[in-house]
Amino acid sequence: MTIQWFPGHMTRARREIQEKLKLIDVVIELLDARLPLSSRNPMIDEILQGKPRMIVLNKADLADPAVTEKWVTYFKNKGILAFPVDAATGTRVQDIPAQAKVLFHDKIQKQISKGINPRAIRGLIVGIPNVGKSTLINKLAGKAIAATGDRPGVTKGQQWIKIGKEMELLDTPGILWPKFEDQEVGYRLAVTGAIKEQVIDIAEVAFYAVKYLTQYYWDTLQERFDLSKKPENFDTPDEVVEVMEEIGRKRGCIVSGGRVDLEKASGIILRELRAGKLGRISMEVPLSFML
Ligand code: G4P
């Protein structure tokens, strides 16, 4: 799916979410565990207007577990509950209703003490395109409810999906726009496949990925593609291109005259990275841990 957000889209998306906020108790903010800040909407705090929320770091199966732990701590230090899940297999998705119960424990107890039978906690999943909202809704529901690839503005009758006895979810997620202003963010989103290559040149995206992997995950990259030597300086573009060319040669991406077809090599690198073939890789580390 290509992300194309214009000011009109953003206004409508924001309005749609704010309409839904009136119906719910808690927001489940879905981020990509590999790049939690880049996959976060820049105006989320303003949009949520103080609604209770939890951050769910999805696709944790593809992220570096040690880095994901750092993100959990990062959000905890900001007073926000965060935890990793893998919506595709369902790993830890049941933490969502369990944590909602913890968040509303006092309120529920108060109601019980007054003799009121507490109603189910109502949740809304929000996140940028491709972060896994539909996959998560379907997994929690235990059946196909949400069509993957939902778009803002495409409205249908809203329904509540029961998640166990104590929680229910709106069946349509809130769709947010990512941060486009920052080029680095755009590259990270493109590397993970949240922005398709039609928007950014595939070789440029692969260049960004190889440069990053050379710097932070060299051993993994070397092992996957059987590379000969680590570039002395990953900041030198020619050296990064040499790594890409070596990958191309190893994978038979050769055109007439023995030249490496960089575009084809780029496709292979990105496909394998996104599919987790290089192992679990995070594209972003909390700044506080880099110092
Ligand atoms: P969205 O509603 O937020 O737009 O996302 P959606 O559920 O459609 O998920 C986008 C892609 O991410 C899907 O792949 C889905 O299978 C994958 N996905 C969702 N959650 C997880 C997870 O926890 N781990 C992994 N590894 N993948 C996950 P797809 O159908 O192949 O789409 P695409 O890759 O062709 O875009």
Automatic annotation (TrEMBL):
Provide the protein's localization.
Cytoplasm
The CP-type G domain, residue ranges: 14-178
- Annotated signal sequence is none
Task: Write one Pfam family the protein is assigned to.
Answer: MMR_HSR1
Coiled-coil annotation: which residues? none
Give GO terms: molecular function aspect only. GTP binding; GTPase activity; RNA binding
Which PROSITE patterns does its entry note? Answer: G_CP (PS51721)
* Keyword Iron-sulfur among UniProt keywords: no
The GO biological-process annotations, alphabetized, read as: ribosome biogenesis; translation
The lineage's top-level taxon is Bacteria
Output a single Gene Ontology CC term carried by this record: cytoplasm
Alphabetic keyword roster: Cytoplasm, GTP-binding, Hydrolase, Nucleotide-binding, Ribosome biogenesis, RNA-binding
Detail which positions bind GTP: 58-61, 130-135, 174
Major localisation: cytoplasm
| Metal-binding recorded as keyword | no
The protein's matches in InterPro entries, at most eight in alphabetical order, are given as:
G_CP_dom, GTP-bd, GTP-bd_ortho_bundle_sf, GTP-bd_ribosome_bgen, GTPase_MTG1, P-loop_NTPase
UniProt lists the family membership as follows:
Belongs to the TRAFAC class YlqF/YawG GTPase family. MTG1 subfamily.
Q: What does this protein do?
A: Required for a late step of 50S ribosomal subunit assembly. Has GTPase activity.
What name appears for this protein in its UniProt entry? Answer: Ribosome biogenesis GTPase A
